[in-house]
Write a structure and sequence with these properties.
23% strand, alpha+beta, four-stranded mixed sheet, protein-disulfide reductase activity, Thioredoxin_CS, 109 residues, Thioredoxin, Glutaredoxin, redox-active center, electron transport, 4 strands
């Protein structure tokens, strides 16, 4: 079971842009092999960050307007939002150590 519950355009603004915590959003598609490969790596990151982050998944086929809005040109793409703004971003499969390297600076305080 993924740590990233599905999110739709209808609740994106409320759950991501208006969130009090940072939010990791995985933009993916059911047919995407690299997306499936990335999921356990993201789950490890979500578990490591614990209650310091909220996590969601957006299916780009079901939510094309969100994909356009955030210029998702390939999947998987993961964006970290803080205070309603995109801060960190990765495209394609990345192993857990690389995800940690990219996203952990946003949580170091």
């Amino acid at each position: 079971m993924s740590e990233f519950p599905p999110l739709s355009e209808a609740d994106f603004d409320e759950k991501v842009l208006n969130a009090s915590l940072p939010v990791l959003v995985e933009f993916s598609a059911v047919w995407c092999g690299p997306c499936r490969r990335l999921e356990p790596e993201l789950d490890k990151l979500a578990k490591m960050l614990g209650n310091r982050v909220q996590c969601y998944k957006v299916d780009v086929d079901d939510n094309p307007d969100l994909a356009f809005r955030y210029q998702i040109l390939s999947v998987p793409t993961v964006i970290l939002f803080q205070n309603g703004e995109p801060r960190g971003r990765i495209n394609g499969y990345q192993p857990y150590p690389r995800l940690l390297e990219i996203f952990s600076p946003y949580f170091d305080s």
